[in-house]
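I have been asked to look over a protein record a colleague put together. Thanks in advance; the entry in question is below.
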Amino acid sequence: MAKKPLTKAQIVAHFAEKFEMPRKTAGAVLEEVVNLAIAETKKAGSFTLPGLGKLVLMKRNARIGRNPATGATINIPAKTVVKMRIAKTAKDAIVPPKK
């Protein structure tokens, strides 16, 4: 079975131990990074976290889709979505490229 992902509390505890700071401070730093990423993505349309990836706002055009249950065609409205583009260095570190 796959290992469970780290919780926010575990990430905060890791940063607190690694940088020898109180957990409250480590939690505040993590919260500020998240808030900065959200604010910059809203304002500028993208936010880059060097070495990890880039949050990007993308506009999807309206299109015609199909209801899989009935087969009827439906109109899907245009909308804005957020995507995370993973940095090449992070991708290659997690899943090494084939040679």
